[in-house]
Amino acid sequence: MKVFVILPAAGIGTRMAASQPKQFLALGGLPILIHSLRAFAAVPRVSALYVAVREQEIARVQSQIAEFLPNAFQSGHSHPSIHVVSGGDSRQESVANALAALPAAPDDLVLVHDAVRPLIDAATIDRTLDAVLEHGAAIVGLPAIDTVKQVERTAHGALIASTIPREYVVLAQTPQGFRCDLLRRAFAEAAADGFQGTDEASLVERAGHPVAVVPGSAANLKITQPGDLALAEFYLAHRA
Ligand code: C5P
Question: pTM above the 0.90 mark?
Answer without folding.
Answer: yes
